[in-house]
Amino acid sequence: MKLGLDDRVAIVCGASQGMGRAVAKGLAAEGTKLVICARSEENLAAAETEIASATGTDQILKVAADLNDPASAPRIVAAAMDRWNRVDILVNNTGGPPGGDPLSFTDDQWLAAIEQNFLNVVRMSREVVPHMREAGWGRIVNILALSVRQVEDNLSLSSATRMAVVAFVKSLSDSVAADGITVNNVLPGSVATDRLHVVNKMQADSRGVDADDAMAERVARVPAGRLGRPEEMADLICFLASERAGFLTALNLPVDGGQLRAII
User: Of 20, 113, 180, 242, which residue is least crowded by CB atoms under 10 Å?
Assistant: First the structure.
């Protein structure tokens, strides 16, 4: 199946490691030109080297930016427009906020989580949509978490703020669908990333159990019997970003090996 991604321009946020890097690599393998963003110049350089080595691309633009700074979204999109005069695809991807009891967080911690997990998506979407509308084509994919469908212990900051993205995406998708723009969310379950190990240890510590035992329990809850791979997330996102996915929008798609217990 040809995805029609040759020469498309994609902005991938949080692209220096984990799922973001896997998505950037997958898009590059399909012929997409990349704008990769993260806070660390060093990690971005390492990501560029890995992606270029794996795919042979030389079409990578690095933008070091902290998306919690409201000035970052306009700067990232301006860099893409200056280089290629188009933005076809946006992949929003941010790290998770701290874990803990839902009543233990201060107002400042709630506001920081809203900034990190919700406003980043709003700001980046606001910057790219005018360019997508002008082109009559666009794809926005947000990497959220399975916890928007199935609550996990001690992840209330993440669940609540990412649920705000779900509501925003439904409204946004309705307003841009006629312009050829789709907006979808993917919901990773237990995918083998550094972030998963951080969350697993936090949850294990809160229960007073060994982190390795907690990870074994986590894997046992996945019918597939294993952790997911970041590349499996990337495969779905490449499809959602493609010509082939033009009639799919406002979806919340689990990538979880059957972990979600909901029927609908």
Answer: 180
